[in-house]
Amino acid sequence: MGVLLSKKQQVEKVQKCNAVLAAFKEGVKDRPAPSASVQPEGSAESGEDVEEATKDNEKEPEQKEEDAKPGPSNQASAAAREECQKANQEAWSRLRDGKGVEPEELVKAHQLTPPAFIRPKRDINDDQPLKVDLAQREQPVNEETCDVCEVWTADELFPCRTCMRVFHDGCVRELGYLRAEALQAMKDTAHTTAGWSCYYCDNVNLLLTEEEMYSLMETFKQCKIIPESFLVSDELLQYRHFVSKQLFDKDLTDEEEEEALAQFAALDPEKRGQIEWTDFLYHESLSVLRKFRTENSLVRLLTAKERDRARAVFQSLDQDKDGIITGTETQRAQQSWFQKLSQEDRESQSCNVSISHVGPISENSPASSSSERSRDKDDNRAVSWDAFLRESALYILAARPNSPAMHIRLPQ
């Protein structure tokens, strides 16, 4: 009987071990073991054997993971590749979303939540003429509270020259869209006639729809343009050759190469031998607008402040008040959008001066040399108010960025 009982215990022990191992393989660790009506002697021993078997099986995958781990050199190279890929993906993501370059010195731990940029969609009537009355001034009023924190603090708010938003310098700094020098420029110019464009209006790339932005990004990728990087003259020429080959199936002529180099000089006003990524992006964004949008569509992009300033410019040129000016006067007005005030002018101008004030082009303005050249070419055609606004819309949009670079070629 003792022999038979020991065999029964062995059979039950084997059955329990097989049940536990099967449950472990299936991932069901709490699967109950087969029930026994009689608890035989030696059951405690069988439980210990099961625990040991389970531990051995758990150690096996851990051992395999340790064996699969790469060495220190492999880890470093893999981490470097992953970091580079992540940075590249983030750069393309910021390009797609229109957020531009993030300042390196920004402390992320203290950063406010940035606004969500939503690209516009073209309306069904986008290409239809927009009626803008010449006699009726709109006189838009700035908002009373900061666009970021929605708090009113009187004179400490800095207005945008393009839209009606106002900002605290601390709020804009915490958002991380402006570096230290840009913040100082905001303080110096926001209350002058030159004015300051907020991070919404300064980024003309935000005017593109998702479809237009996708087309521009694909061109950048095919030409191996790296987002958020500087461009030298050879890279710009290579890009121009690629675009010409893709669009027109021909190489650039000598005159077109000279024009590309002139464009490079206009985007590099400080003569550093390289152009900023944002200036290149804004120039290409305006080129997309010029290519895919009608003049009526561009007029719809103008804000109330920009329309009011255009009225003031037109009325100042229309001396006989007949609603007609010449083509030459229109070109001079378009050049006036790029007027750059010197530091002395900024200090002498107060916030009481209307943003629609129009003065002579300063000698240090990039438009001054073009203005002198254009005087030799008189354009006596009659230009009405509606035609003036349509022809000038692209130049008004190109004057939004705070950068001193010229983002569009002035009329000659």
Automatic annotation (TrEMBL):
Query: From what superkingdom does this record's organism come?
Result: Eukaryota
GO molecular-function terms, A-Z:
zinc ion binding
Amino acid composition bias (Low complexity), ranges on this chain: 362-371
Query: What keyword terms does UniProt attach to this protein?
Result: Metal-binding, Zinc, Zinc-finger
The record's listing under SUPFAM superfamilies reads: EF-hand, FYVE/PHD zinc finger
Q: Which Pfam families match?
A: zf-RING_15
UniProt keyword Kinase present: no
Q: Where is the composition biased (Basic and acidic residues)?
A: 52-69
Residue limits of the EF-hand domain? Answer: 305-340
Using the UniProt annotation, give all residue ranges assigned to the region (Disordered).
25-91, 349-378
Identification of the protein by name: EF-hand domain-containing protein
| Phylogenetic lineage | Eukaryota, Metazoa, Chordata, Craniata, Vertebrata
